[in-house]
Sequence to fold (871 residues):
Amino acid sequence: MIRLKSVSLAIPVVFLVLTPHHLCAQHRFLENGNSLNRGPDAGFLLDTPTREKIDLSGTWNYNVEGGPLGTILIPSAYDFVGKVSFERTFEVSAEQVDKYQFSLVMYGVNYACEISVNGDFILSHAGGYTSFVQPLLPGVLQVGKENVIRVLVGNELDPTKTLPLRSQVWGWRNYGGILRDVFILATPKFAISSASIRADVAQNGGSAKLTIGAGIEGKHEPHASESEPGKKPAVPGVFVEVFDKVSGFAVERSAIIPLAKSADGWENVKIEVPLQNPKLWSPEFPELYLVKCFLVEAVGKEFTVLDEYDLNHGIRTVETKGGSITLNGKRYVLKGVVWQEDHPTYGSAVGYEDLEKDIVLIKNLGANAVRFENHPPHPYMLNLCDRYGLFALEELPVVGVPASILSDEYFVELASTMMKEMIARDKHHASVLAWGIGDEFESSSQEARGFVETMVKLAKHLDTRPVYYGSVLPESDICVELVDLAVLNVHTTDLKVFKKQLGDWKSAHPEKPVIAGKFGTEVQHGNRNGYSDPLSYEAQARFFIQRFDVLKSLSYDGAFVWALNDWKGDRPALTVNSGDPWMHTLGLVSSQREKRLAYEAVRTVFRGEKFVALPIGNYSTSAPIIYVLTGLVVLIGTAYFYNANRRFRDNVNRSILNSYNFFADVRDQRLVSVLHSTILGFVVSIASAIVASSVLYHFRDSRVLDNLLSYLLVYDNIKEYMVQLIWNPLKFIAYFSAIFFILLLLLSSLVYVVSPIVKSRVFAYHAYVITMWSTPPLLLLVPVGMIVYRIMESPMYVLPSLILMAVLLTWVVLRLLKGISIMFDVYAVKVYVVGLLSIVSVFAVVYFYFDYTQATSTYLTFMFNVMSSSQ
Fold:
């Protein structure tokens, strides 16, 4: 990999001063502006008669730090990196101020925000996809229309200190802004603060018991005076009523349970409600109940409702015993897809209608589960999963995290806070099958084991559902024994390796349900060349059919297709020549939700139907011909000039066979013309560009190279251009021929700049000629460039080819140092020592710059550990 690394490091050095960090052509906003969804199907905090919501969606003023200002519709996402201040006014009536207490509710603000209301600081929050509820102190809101809320949002991520970390390849787009609903929740001053439900179902399914827990806040001020003669005392209490969600009929009602005071308020209330012949929830029959908790003031047999808190609830029993998942007493196999919260029009500020359209796509696919891999989804998505019948796997964005970061106290605290927010918001959903604590982190390390232990303990304390994470290390994972589900992500394109990894994983964990966490393959949009083309629609369809055959033979407990839809990433990707390296094209449907052939293929698998035969096509790559043709032109031209010009031929021969005398003659007699030196430099640059293109094109589908380029090319627009060049060999050769020649010019300039430190008089001519004539060994790359792509198609020749290139490059460096020693009339040993130290210093400066700004060493170590552990 020496050659790959040297080429990659050269690029940021050239462009370091030319390209600003996170270059953005414009401040792009993706406006949704949907009004708040209300009623018994709201995603979070259902509407009830005793409560009000002051909707803050709609028009806001914005001010981009160092940029423009204007108005925008909220919810919305901004597609650039920076800080934006959002502000609007809203009205609160005198009746509301007198009657209610208020809380600010935000479904999602990415990534970090600071919020103030009427100039009073309310809170700061980190984490863009967990919802939060912040009580407002009395007196913060004022009567009238001039209440002002200001939200300062920043979406810059850090490689080590945010959650998620700054994403690598195949991550999701880090849109900023107020992405989801925002409103003021007005509740009675004496109210139900929280509610939870646990269902216990009899073994025969003939009865169930609901245990409802309710928290109470506020001071009770009786409406009926206890001192009034003849009046019974007013007693605060709670009762529960259960309704069939579809019909609306009342099913059961509890007695009123009086409240008991505690030292700091009120003791939590527990109410048991028996149900006969309960309707059990499942993806096939998503039966739901509406559970209404009433806080009342009772006087004798009469009562007055003070507050109502509603929850949708599905009764089901899920167990993960005996190596299987059981739902309501029967083994259940998950057939799922990974869903990315991204839309071409709205970014991650996806509206209610489009969320429901995606759920319909998933349900029509025949799936019974959806994996929210990257972060907790919009709360309305879980409401839809409840109603349509889809199990949900919901997880934290702890994705691709190195071991050293997993053990960091600050990072663990971020993950713990996000876990608490995720579970508190979504634990009442019947659709939530399990909580995920991350995906593809370094689970072969002891640091990861400590992180997993901490997060599993916290999740189990907050809820009883199973816990899992997505592993990518089938042989060296040491954490899976700590969780309930053995989930393995498989990224290999080799069907035999796919079968072996999954088979070994199942054999290693017979006591746990085993799940293929995600597997997929990229496509070129519109490519219908037949499955012989690995990026065609037909190849994608065949990919899933073959792998589901393997999963069926292994009797897996579940599998998730990666992914339902294409999505925009935060880093450009190398492995697909889609025309837009930012768009990750793994979807069964496009980003515009256009169905691909793979959608129909997966649908037939999920529904147990037969799929039609796929055409093979006649795909063949044309890249080797480009290398042969360009190499042949250079070879013929060089050979012709070599034979036709005696002086050039003699200089080439002498520079290689008798380099000392050649460089001495250059110093003393100037026997070599600038024209010949320039021609040699151009030929060597073109030959080097052909070989570099061949090597990079060979590794174009390598996830290692894809990540390596992201680690080393800090500036995403440089990588974007690199990706386009790698997939266009002719253009790559043209551009990098010029870049390599410019590097030779810069090198000769550097040699001339340092010449004053020696006594010998050195001219620019000497520096230029000696630099150019240190490169003749690279002429061997002319014929090599014509065939190296074909040679590297055999795995056994990849490493020798890279070693050969590294040897030639080292030879050239040593020749240059030798020429400098002769030109400067300095002992060769001194020049070698100083020269090699200088080279090491340059690489060290570049390395430490990247390491300081992007934690490159941490991620390179992580990549190496993952690679070595997964082999």
